Amino acid sequence: MGELQRIRTIESRLQQIQDRDNLVRDVIVKELPQQRFVSARQVLSQTDSPDDFFWSVINALTKGERTSNGQMTIVFHEDGIDSDYIDMEFGKSLDRSSRLSLTTNNGITLVDKFLPSATMATFVPQTKNCAKLLGYNAIASWVEANHYDLAGAVRLVFLELPKQPGDDDYVMEIQFPVRKREVELNLRSL
Question: Of 155, 161, 172, which is closest to residue 66 (Cα–Cα)?
């Protein structure tokens, strides 16, 4: 019985490796122009839930109208992996002519700014379970295989918003700013 379990474990791991290669093929690189971005920023401890902040900003930006123009986006200035906090900015990209009230709503102060133009490695996860993790892994594998470096804050762009708190039925695109790695050639590296 132990040998059968070992074989199943090996088969499972091989399937994970195969799936990872398929996910890497789904990474798309695109150039994004500078974008007007109306947002609120908050620093949360690892134990804080970002849900209250998330829904307060959605309500402030959409005023209950979820179908208005512009994409809701989270920018992670610090994602909590290398620190004890999460520094996140949540807002909406707008075209330059859009008008949006910058009032304070439920303690949320909105700021009108611009996200810089960037080359982005992007991925849209197909599954809900561990979707963000799968996307991060796919992009990281692509970056390494194609000799790029990460070059800025991660963005999560909602293509379809959750309808209510606790709703896992949404679609997002993960965007990592990247730049081509400079290769330094010298006689020792040959």
Answer: 161
